[in-house]
Amino acid sequence: MATTPSSVWRNPVHFAAFGFGSGAVPVAPGTFGTLMAVPIYLLLLPDLSWPLYGLFLVVTFALGLFLCGRTAQDIGVHDHGGIVWDEFVGYWLTMFLAPPGWLWIAVGFVLFRFFDVVKPWPIRWLDKNVSGGFGVMIDDVLAGVMAFICLQIAVIIIN
């Protein structure tokens, strides 16, 4: 993994893109970024109505286009492993309409990390062929969509 640029600790845009510092860990920054998304999810999202949660997803995706695009451009690395705002949004998308409880939080975490790491088609293609802030965000958003579908299927089967 590329080293963490020092600007992460000085520039608020870079700090946010690096998941408030969670993406600066030297090993598995995507996993640590997703872990940081969990307490944010617990603080903000479980009690939102689905329209407000959907709006939150749209706003954080749009914010991610800016944060990730600007940070990638500033540091000169298209999709630096430490840029984890996209993991935040992907995890929150996975958890859209999820039932409450730690079981579903953990299942959502595992499913999202699986799709984000394995990158089945078309995620891998998007990761390699789409640039800018949209390129940084879209592969994790699609991983979140796939994880969301699997989570909802699991909810139907278990309940």
What does this structure look like?
The protein is mainly alpha-helical and 159 residues long. The protein has seven helices and no strands. It has one domain (6-158). Helix 5 (102-118) crosses helix 7. The longest helix is centred in the C-terminal third of the chain and has 27 residues, at 132-158. It is globular, with a radius of gyration of 15 Å. It starts with 11 loop residues before the first helix and ends with a helix.
Q: What is the total domain count?
A: 1
SSE order in H/E notation?
A: HHHHHHH
Q: Fraction of residues in helices?
A: 55-70%
Average per-residue pLDDT, rounded, comes to: 93
Please, what is the oligomeric state?
Answer: single chain
Give the helix tally: 7
How much of the sequence lies in strands comes to: under 5%
Q: Structural class of the helix and strand makeup?
A: mainly alpha
Q: What integer value in Å does the Rg equal?
A: 15 Å
| Count of distinct strands | 0
Compile the SSE list and pairings.
Blueprint: H1 12-17, H2 29-44, H3 50-75, H4 85-94, H5 102-118, H6 123-129, H7 132-158
Features:
mainly alpha; single chain; 159 residues; 7 helices; globular; 69% helix
How is this structure best summarized?
With 159 residues, the chain is mainly alpha-helical.
